[in-house]
């Protein structure tokens, strides 16, 4: 996979073309909350970037682990409940019932709406660039496609969308596509094997513990 080539493609995306596709597919959020909740016994799983975690920390200074958890894919859980392994992304933290920790079930809304991650801002859409369907960014499958735009399962699809809203969403999708590739390049370039016990998250800034604290070079 040539990440630099994919990044160049992402930077060159035509927002008007993406907006055309979104208009063609159609979308209006019904506020059903399904994209914020754990479903079918599975915890909610959505990518969040390190700087997005810090952006949420700005308001009230919550701890890193109150916002994000290591993406569980690739980690191993032992019989005694301890988890070990390396992972390469952060996921939005979940509550006891498996929903996103920021989902207000009583109010049926996101409690950090203005600072929600790019993945949340762009759901149910994603862009396919070079790596096919790899960036679905959610637990479900592609249900519609228009050029590079992929639509994932959502009851809001097929509804009328204004040109202004389609263009705003298209711009955010492009921003996400660029950020995803910048993050992947950062992870690749900053990866250093560690001998630290437990879980290690390798993000674009280096290796971190599950609480977000950097792992020092003395462990590499
Ligand atoms: S951050 Fe907000 S929009 Fe994103 S999954 Fe959580 S509750 Fe939903």
From TrEMBL:
Q: Which InterPro entries does this chain map to? A: Puta_zinc/iron-chelating_dom
Q: Where is the composition biased (Basic and acidic residues)?
A: 200-211
Question: Does Iron-sulfur show up as a keyword for this record?
Answer: no
An MF annotation (GO) of this entry: methyltransferase activity
List, in alphabetical order, the GO biological process terms annotated in this UniProt record: methylation
- Keyword set for this entry? Cell projection, Cilium, Flagellum, Methyltransferase, Transferase
Q: Where is this region: Disordered?
A: 185-220
Q: Does the keyword Nucleus apply?
A: no
What name goes with this protein?
Flagellin N-methylase protein
Q: What is the lineage of its organism?
A: Archaea, Methanobacteriati, Methanobacteriota, Stenosarchaea group, Halobacteria
């Amino acid at each position: 996979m040539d990440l630099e080539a994919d990044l160049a493609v992402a930077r060159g995306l035509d927002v008007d073309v993406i907006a055309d596709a979104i208009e063609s597919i159609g979308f209006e959020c019904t506020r059903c909350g399904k994209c914020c909740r754990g479903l079918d016994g599975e915890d909610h799983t959505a990518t969040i970037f390190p700087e997005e975690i810090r952006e949420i920390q700005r308001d009230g200074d919550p701890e890193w682990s109150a916002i994000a958890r290591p993406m569980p894919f690739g980690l191993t859980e032992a019989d005694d409940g301890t988890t070990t392994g390396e992972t390469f992304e952060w996921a939005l933290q979940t509550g006891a019932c498996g929903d996103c920790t920021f989902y207000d079930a009583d109010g049926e809304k996101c409690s950090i709406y203005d600072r929600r991650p790019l993945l949340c801002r762009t759901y149910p859409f994603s862009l396919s660039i070079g790596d096919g369907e790899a960036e679905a960014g959610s637990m479900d499958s592609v249900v519609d496609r228009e050029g590079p735009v992929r639509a994932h399962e959502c009851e809001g699809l097929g509804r009328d969308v204004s040109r202004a809203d389609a263009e705003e969403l298209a711009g955010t999708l492009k921003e996400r596509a660029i950020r995803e590739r910048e993050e992947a390049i950062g992870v690749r370039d900053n990866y250093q094997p560690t001998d630290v016990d437990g879980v290690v998250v390798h993000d674009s800034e280096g290796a971190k513990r599950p609480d977000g604290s950097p792992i020092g070079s003395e462990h590499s």
